[in-house]
């Protein structure tokens, strides 16, 4: 809680600076202002009261406005199309795709600071944007990078907890175990035990969230090196940014792989609130479970094959195509392979979506990355062929609402090209990134005082009786 003391010291200094209105004190004031400008907590402290007021006004003025009606289909259909959550950090349009605080992916690529001009956005910049709704300067991003570095140390018991699992345990199981082991350091649960006032919940939630985000790359890299590289650990490089250092700890030091990791972590971070991982994190945290508990729950949802595990499934599927038909497979052969998959009662991984109705812009930006850096890679060319072949087949099925590729259709071939070939590990990378979105919203959940989530459920008997009455 050291930083709260420093924030209040800052505001005292600020008041003093205002009182002593001399030339030298105004120079000092500028310095103080500049240093607090780099501190994301000061921005949040300023934003929270105005956003609390905004929510209060929405409740009092529009509380009874209807947002649509609920049909039986919606109840039986996984709540598709049912608006039921407040999620501030991003919003998904079915046709246009995701906007992070109002900015599309191409816009983020333009305005968020990068390591070099025209480079991929730094994930720390996206974290700043999600938390504050403002595009940060390079100095602000650098300050956040160094704050994350200062929190990245991993207690030894976390490695021991992971080591207690067989090396054959799925990487996502090892990852969730690591997150649960980190939970013992939760500031939120300590503060709750000590009777913290509810108006202050966001503060230790912020502490936990930043520490968790900071620590995840080292835990994830440890698991990768443990399983696939004989446990030879690569220490952090403190001169690198979050994404670059993550690639480095995994064992990849080419500047292209570092750029890919920055793009990867940025685009997988957030996809509004209803996806399985985000919704799970938000639900669990609504019981005032701390960010570690909430995020571990979210990871367990991400580990499902219809959600985050699809990136693993895509590369394994693509490799099975190559094994059976070779890299230079014709479109006709590919069609047959897709039908064979469908006829055996499986989904085509990487295609379709619960909300999107067009090609995922996260797919498109990865495609652009591939066209720039690996246009001749045979697996990339296979992914491009799938883009032509799969949508007409899924459309022909007649029941698939979105035949277009999603984010997972592309990520594996990029990682594979740079040497990260172990598909079973891919969902862990998704998980590291998803923490940025989920934790940013958890901080706002607590700052806005959002309540325990508890929707109503009904039985089939209830539905039959209710529907008989209404016809
Ligand atoms: N291959 C085969 N069948 C599909 C596919 C697909 N790619 N996508 C949807 N369908 C089927 C779906 O299984 C359902 O069949 P049934 O009625 O027999 O149960 C029917 O089409 C209608 O489903 P939709 O309403 O179009 O899709 P829904 O919203 O229920 O599910 C997904 C969305 C993403 C779960 C689904 O499209 C899918 O299983 N895709 C493949 C897995 C995948 O790529 N998941 C990753 C999603 C992104 N992420 O990272 O989370
Ligand atoms: C995600 O990124 O969470 C997936 O695209 C799934 C979703 O949005 O439902």
UniProtKB/TrEMBL annotation:
<comment type="similarity">
    <text>Belongs to the citrate synthase family.</text>
</comment>
<dbReference type="InterPro" id="IPR019810">
    <property type="entry name" value="Citrate_synthase_AS"/>
</dbReference>
<dbReference type="GO" id="GO:0006101">
    <property type="term" value="P:citrate metabolic process"/>
</dbReference>
<feature type="active site">
    <location>
        <position position="353"/>
    </location>
</feature>
<dbReference type="InterPro" id="IPR036969">
    <property type="entry name" value="Citrate_synthase_sf"/>
</dbReference>
<dbReference type="InterPro" id="IPR002020">
    <property type="entry name" value="Citrate_synthase"/>
</dbReference>
<feature type="active site">
    <location>
        <position position="307"/>
    </location>
</feature>
<dbReference type="GO" id="GO:0006099">
    <property type="term" value="P:tricarboxylic acid cycle"/>
</dbReference>
<dbReference type="InterPro" id="IPR016142">
    <property type="entry name" value="Citrate_synth-like_lrg_a-sub"/>
</dbReference>
<dbReference type="Pfam" id="PF00285">
    <property type="entry name" value="Citrate_synt"/>
</dbReference>
<dbReference type="InterPro" id="IPR010109">
    <property type="entry name" value="Citrate_synthase_euk"/>
</dbReference>
<dbReference type="InterPro" id="IPR016143">
    <property type="entry name" value="Citrate_synth-like_sm_a-sub"/>
</dbReference>
<protein>
    <recommendedName>
        <fullName>Citrate synthase</fullName>
    </recommendedName>
</protein>
<dbReference type="GO" id="GO:0046912">
    <property type="term" value="F:acyltransferase activity, acyl groups converted into alkyl on transfer"/>
</dbReference>
<dbReference type="GO" id="GO:0005975">
    <property type="term" value="P:carbohydrate metabolic process"/>
</dbReference>
<dbReference type="GO" id="GO:0005759">
    <property type="term" value="C:mitochondrial matrix"/>
</dbReference>
<keyword id="KW-0808">Transferase</keyword>
<feature type="active site">
    <location>
        <position position="408"/>
    </location>
</feature>
């Amino acid at each position: 809680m050291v930083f709260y003391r420093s924030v209040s010291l800052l505001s005292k200094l600020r008041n003093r600076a205002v009182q002593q209105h001399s030339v030298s004190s105004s120079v000092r004031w500028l310095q103080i202002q500049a240093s607090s400008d780099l501190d994301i907590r000061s921005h949040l402290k300023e934003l929270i009261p105005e956003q609390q007021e905004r929510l209060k006004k929405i409740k009092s003025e529009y509380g009874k406005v209807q947002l649509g009606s609920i049909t039986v289909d919606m109840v039986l259909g996984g709540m598709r199309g049912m608006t039921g959550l407040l999620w501030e950090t991003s919003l998904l349009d079915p046709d246009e795709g995701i906007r992070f605080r109002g900015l599309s992916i191409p816009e983020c690529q333009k305005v968020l600071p990068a390591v070099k001009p025209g480079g991929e956005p730094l994930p720390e910049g996206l974290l700043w944007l999600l938390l504050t709704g403002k595009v940060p300067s390079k100095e602000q991003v650098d300050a956040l990078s160094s704050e994350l570095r200062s929190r990245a140390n991993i207690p030894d018991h976390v490695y021991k907890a992971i080591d207690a699992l067989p090396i054959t345990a799925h990487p996502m199981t090892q990852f969730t175990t690591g997150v649960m082991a980190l939970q013992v350091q939760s500031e939120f649960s300590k503060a709750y035990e000590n009777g913290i006032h509810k108006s202050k919940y966001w503060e230790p939630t912020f502490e936990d969230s930043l520490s968790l985000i900071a620590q995840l790359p080292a835990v994830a890299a440890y698991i990768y090196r443990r399983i696939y590289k004989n446990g030879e650990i690569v220490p952090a490089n403190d001169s690198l940014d979050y994404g670059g250092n993550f690639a480095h700890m995994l064992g990849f030091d080419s500047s292209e792989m570092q750029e890919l990791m920055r793009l990867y972590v940025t685009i997988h971070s957030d996809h509004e609130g209803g996806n399985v991982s985000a919704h799970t994190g938000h639900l669990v945290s609504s019981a005032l479970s701390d960010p570690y508990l909430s995020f571990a729950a979210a990871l367990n949802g991400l580990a499902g094959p219809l959600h985050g595990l699809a990136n693993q499934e895509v590369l394994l599927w693509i490799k099975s195509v190559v094994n059976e038909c070779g890299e230079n497979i014709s479109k006709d052969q590919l069609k047959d392979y897709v039908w064979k998959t469908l006829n055996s009662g499986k989904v085509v991984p990487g295609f379709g979506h619960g909300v999107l109705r067009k090609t995922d812009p996260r797919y498109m930006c990865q495609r652009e990355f591939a066209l720039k850096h690996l246009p001749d890679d045979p697996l990339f060319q296979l992914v491009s062929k799938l883009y032509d072949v799969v949508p007409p087949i899924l459309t022909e099925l007649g029941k698939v609402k979105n035949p277009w590729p999603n984010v997972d259709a592309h990520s594996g071939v990029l990682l594979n090209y740079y040497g990260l070939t172990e598909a079973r590990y891919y969902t862990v990378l998704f998980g590291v990134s998803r923490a940025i979105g989920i934790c940013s919203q958890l901080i706002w959940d607590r700052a806005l005082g959002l309540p325990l989530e508890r929707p109503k459920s009904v039985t089939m008997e209830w539905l039959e009786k209710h529907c008989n009455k209404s016809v």
